[in-house]
Amino acid sequence: MSKHKISCIVNGQKVDMEVNASDLLIDxxxxxxGLISVKRACDMQVCGAxxxxxxxxxxxxCTTLAIEMDGxxxxxxxxxANGGELHPIQQAFIDNGALQCGYxxxxxxxxxxxxxxxxxxxxxxxxxxxLHGNICRCTGYTSIVKAVQKLSVGKE
Amino acid sequence: MxxxxxxxxxxRIVPRTDYHAKVTGAALYPSDIRIEGMLESAIVRSPFAHAxxxxxxxxxxxxxxxxxxxxxxxxxADLDPYFGPVFRDQPILAINRVRYEGEPVAAVxxxxxxxxxxxxxxxxxxxxxxxxxxxxxxxxxSDAPKIHSRTxxxxxxxxxxxxxxxxxxxxxxxxxDYNHGNVEEGFAAADLVIENEYRVPIIHQYPLEPMYSIxxxxxxxxxxxxxxxxxxxVRQDLAAIFGLHQSQIRVISYPMxxxxxxxxxxxxxxxxxxxxxxxGKPVRVALxxxxxxxxxxxxxxxxxxxxxxxxDGTIVARTVHIDYQIGAYADxxxxxxxxxxxxxxxxxxxxxVEIHSRAIYTNTPPSGAYRGFxxxxxxxxxxxxTDEIAKALEMDPVEFRVKxxxxxxxxxxxxxxxxxxxxxxxxxxxxxxxxWNKPLKPWRGRGVAVSFKPSQSPTESTAIMRLHADGSxxxxxxxAEMGQGSLSVMAQIAAEELGLPLDRVVVSxxxxxxxxxxxxxxxSRSTVAMGRAVQDAAKKIKEKLIERTAILLKAPKEDVxxxxxxxxxxxxRKSIPEVLTQTRHLGGIEICEIGQYILSGTNxxxxxxxxxxxxxxxxxxxxxxxxxxxxxxxKLLTAVDxxxxxxxxxxxxxxxxxxxxxxxxxxxxxxxxxDGTLKNPTLVQYRxxxxxxxxxxxxxxxxxxxxxxxxxGAKGVGEGGLMAVPAAIGNAVAQAIGVHINELPLKPEKxxxxxxxxxxx
Lengths: 156, 761
Known about the structure:
The complex is a heterodimer. By secondary structure, chain A is an alpha+beta fold. Helix content of chain A is about 30%, strand content about 15%. Chain A has helices spanning about 25-30, 90-95, 105-120, 125-130, 140-150, and strands at about 5-10, 15-20, 50-55, 55-60, 75. In chain A, strand 3 (about 50-55) and strand 4 form a beta hairpin. In chain A, helix 2 (about 90-95) crosses helix 5 (about 140-150). The longest helix of chain A has 14 residues, at about 105-120. Chain B is α+β, with helices and mostly antiparallel strands. Chain B is built from 18 helices and 30 strands. In chain B, strands 9-17-16-15-10 form a 5-stranded mixed sheet. A 4-stranded mixed sheet of chain B has the order 13-12-11-14.
């Protein structure tokens, strides 16, 4: 199996590594880089639990090849906080009780962040449309919508 | 005292102690656990719903590089390889016969998952297919193949279900009958008798995290790292299978990525241990989401319900025949049939009642616990039936319910706890809020539903609390965290009772080698049962600390108080470490206490009187698209009786989350079986509620009267939405289209056909 040298920025750190052509992004992030916030669930790009950002765009890492990291910036939930200070989206999820088991949370946080970068003032409908690829079984979603609305520019 | 609970209601949001780790990705779930030297595995599953295993050829599989060993039913001969909380009828791997499609037949251990999967694909199993009994009807037919020929009494529920329950002559795994009054006389005295039949399909709990268990077998020592709601039951099953003492078995349950009942009772833990026993190293069993759905699911049901009513709307008699389609192995499903059957006439005042509930084995995956535990199936039937009666009587459905709903203090059944909530005012408030009497636009409808469920009894929880030398505290207890927030609530209860800041209390995960016994994390029982045990332990520590302070300061005990982690006696302030150090001779530097909550059996129909009833209410407004049959839930209002919400935000979160699962069960969820084969085994084909399914107006009303048996007046919550919401949606759809659809889910095609049928008629 052919090995490929890749170079990327993972959560702000430069990473040079070798990956197999067939390696999945989720496996490399979890098993080689120890980024366990990336959660394995459906394995078929339906549930969003394994979402990570590549250059601010959400990808399902369960169905993305690791080689896609090459030359890109990778963000996982581990990279959201700035030292001891939580990212505002993390704080908004806490304040609104927007998680229970937390298994969807990393993906939900990253999809929300991607939305807010692309559209800093989303309407409720735009939030729902953007997040409909992230399944949460616990919260019933209302608190998640509220948390994202809190970060919408021009709102509280 | 009461610093956490005394803030005004709207501000009573206490951030959960596990939130920080969960938003930063640091939290360890069962799927994140790695043990040094751990091997991976893959399972070969049966393609047939019912077949004899003729031979298993593992030669090619053994040649795959990285493969260590392969386990089949033959390897289990020196064990007692069956498990189950009611009947020990489920083998670790199929022995000679498979009873459902997806049943584990063999398993491969390899250095990595890839090799294990490759080897598993090369195992050649030869089957001789047998006649199948896939449905309730085919399993009950006189010529039905018998799915089980022997049954052994199970582990956990053997005390609850009596000896007469062991049935070997048919596919009826369990029967529960209950009656009071005389239904024949009741029907004879009725002005109107109405009978309906309802169906509820098989659905899956779909926790986002699939099942993961790591087993490690050493001589006279077993360790399991898993995610389970019932670590003590898993330990009991493992002890029986491997012939060890419970003290030799350590089951550690990590916070789960959702469960909703799916990870209650033993699942893949025995397989992980059996694989480790053969491989000589720790082995992980990692299921996919599809495999998790092949492991456990919710029982389907067929319900016949018949009521006799007076012209004035008084219900005088009701019979219910409810058959639960439980699958190939019993798991806890007989208990589901017992509990769901018991309350299947609803929270109504009915003088003459007769209930027949059965759990029917079929050649489908095992069914077990799912939020509501058999009650959602019954509620779908009796609350749609309630609207049918109201319609026939030309009575308003809310008024009809109010006339018959049990009031606080009334008995549902002799020997059980009297009703401990106020149905009528809450139902009226929800109806008012949904605009019950306001005109409706075309193709819109409104519906309400109520339901109730007993919690668990007999039951027991024990907790250990330790106040350390520095004034911080540890709680050792066996309640499992699956997202419901119990770790945080137990910390709150301990902190509140002892007068400590919340951040000084750490609560353990269940580890059976360290925590004292706890029945289960099920039945919405933990806040009450384990909460009381934790509170009891904290109270005892407080008493000792106050007594030692009083001796130290020569002050009356009544003058000593603990506030925010400090001891105050008259004008003197002392830190907890000071008092512990200076009174060390009176009981040690650490104060360690045991707290307990135990409910013994009673003559109530379920063998114990429930500590509280879990009631629920739902009111909805829907809009139906007449061209497509698609149902849009516009408004969804629910209510939950928390007694006293220890964490208000979390109570609301439980009710909203449960209600959204109810919306899914109402509108799209269904495991489709054709000839015993699951046709929609992945999330691509099985539709779960998405964020885009959110009703425009969706909120939960939390009722707090401080009247629960739990700490500070709390009751258990979390299951209500899934019980009441589908029936409320069903009633609303019936109003919108003019006809009731008796079978879930209310998929567009079914609704469209109902509209066409009505228009033709």
